[in-house]
Write a structure and sequence with these properties.
alpha+beta; conserved putative lor/sdh protein from methanococcus maripaludis s2 fold; 5-stranded antiparallel beta sheet; 7 helices; 17 strands; 35% helix
């Protein structure tokens, strides 16, 4: 039986809908990956939570994170300052000037004495020649005295106490790496002559005896400086201009503190800090305040750090890099 035109149109429309539904199901089925093809989730990046850096176990193993407990100790409170090695080139120039002035003064003094002896013996030396020779001898002696005073003017009375001839000797010793001249600056006041000051050589430490005041004050600390000599095998390690931590003799009250290993100390943002482990996967930055360099590490008074605190002694630099790359929590503490 033949179909009418309306029935035939309805049949075509129904077939089209069915084919469209079948095509949509097939596309959705083949486009969606199955469980084996689905991409695996990437490891979670370290994040900062309430000021702490959270690091998973796999990342800690790859970074080689090692912690150690802080040991407690006591220390008498002394004053902390800075030591800086001075350039001895000007001292060598002064030494050469002193040597030249001394030779001229010696020669003119001998000539004046010779002419005076001839004049006394009436051997042909005129009195005018004698007076001229004596004037030259006095002028050469004045130049020698001025050359010696340059040590005081340019370095300080502390160095001039060693005598005029010390400039040449120190310059020769410095050229052989046997001595270094240190300028010591402390915020309160310069240590007196004869005081002992401990210098942190990083690594190691040594003590020097203060010679006396330096020539000029420090423009940053606004303090009067002092001079000291560092001799021995440590002298070549002190580069000109290098800044070292210095501590006066401990004669103040005893303080409780901890010894922070040097390997745990990080330097950034114009300060020092350590990573303290608050849990197996959490680390926080703790600034070092009022620290003092010692041979085994840094002495830090009890406060933000305590004995037994676990600090990172290996992998601290990696934690710093992770901290800079970690996403920061939102200001309102919630999700967008």
């Amino acid at each position: 039986m033949a179909l009418g035109r309306g029935a035939f149109s309805a049949l075509l429309l129904g077939s089209g809908i069915a084919l469209g539904a079948l095509a949509g199901w097939g596309y959705a089925h083949f486009a969606a990956p199955d469980g084996d093809d689905a991409p695996h989730a990437a490891p979670a990046a370290p994040a900062t939570t309430t000021g702490a850096l959270v690091v998973d176990d796999a990342t800690r193993r790859r970074a080689g994170i090692v912690t150690a407990a802080l040991a407690t100790t006591t220390q008498s409170q002394g004053e902390t300052g800075y030591a800086r090695a001075l350039d001895l080139g000007p001292l060598a120039a002064i030494g050469a000037e002193i040597d030249s002035a001394r030779a001229a003064a010696t020669a003119s003094a001998r000539e004046a004495a010779r002419l005076a002896a001839l004049a006394g013996a009436d051997a042909g030396a005129a009195q005018r020649e004698v007076e001229s020779a004596r004037a030259q001898a006095r002028a050469d002696a004045a130049r020698l005295n001025l050359a010696c005073q340059r040590v005081t003017f340019e370095f300080g009375a502390g160095l001039s106490h060693l005598g005029c001839g010390a400039a040449e000797a120190l310059a020769r010793q410095a050229s052989r790496g046997e001595v270094a001249i240190l300028r010591l600056d402390f915020p309160a006041s310069a240590p007196p002559a004869g005081a002992m000051v401990q210098i942190d050589l990083a690594p190691g430490s040594t003590q020097v005896r203060v010679l006396g005041p330096a020539a000029a004050g420090d423009t940053q600390l606004q303090s009067g400086g002092a001079l000291a000599l560092l001799t021995g095998p440590q002298a070549p390690r002190i580069g000109v201009g290098r800044i070292l931590a210095a501590t006066t003799a401990a004669n103040g009250p005893v303080r409780q503190g901890v010894i922070v290993p040097r390997s745990a100390i990080m330097r950034t943002d114009a300060g020092l800090f350590v990573w303290r482990a608050t849990a197996a996967d959490r680390f926080e930055r703790v600034a070092l305040e009022d620290g003092r360099a010692m041979a085994p590490g840094w002495f830090v008074p009890i406060g933000r750090l305590h004995g037994g605190d676990q600090v990172v002694i290996a992998g601290a630099g990696t934690l710093l890099g992770l901290d800079h790359a970690a996403p920061q929590p939102s200001a309102d503490g919630g999700d967008d």
